[in-house]
Amino acid sequence: MFCPRYRRKIFLQADVEQRFKELVHEGCEELQIVIVALECDKDHTHMFLNALPSLSPADMMAKMKGVTSQKLREEF
C-alpha cells in the first residue's frame, strides 16, 4: 500500500486512476515485476507484487512512486 503525499484524493478522477495503473504496468514490465493485484481508492493504492529477491520492497516502491508521480504531475 502507498499513499499520495498528504493523502490527497487524486484518484477521484477516473482518468488519473486509469493513467496511474498504466504507468505502474509499464514500470513493472521494465523492472520484471509481476502484478498480482492493483487497486486504487480515493487517496491510496494497494499493490501486491511479485519480484526477484534482488529487488527490495523499498526499492520497488521508490521506483514506482518516482515514475508515477513525475508522469502524473506532467500530464494532469
Automatic annotation (TrEMBL):
Molecular function (Gene Ontology), one example: transposase activity
Pfam families documented for this protein: Y1_Tnp
Any one biological process term the GO annotation gives: DNA transposition
InterPro entries reported in the protein's UniProt record: Transposase_17 (IPR002686), Transposase_17_sf (IPR036515)
Signal peptide span: none
Superkingdom of this protein's organism: Bacteria
All residue ranges annotated as the Transposase IS200-like domain in the record: 1-76
Name used for this protein in its record: IS200/IS605 family transposase
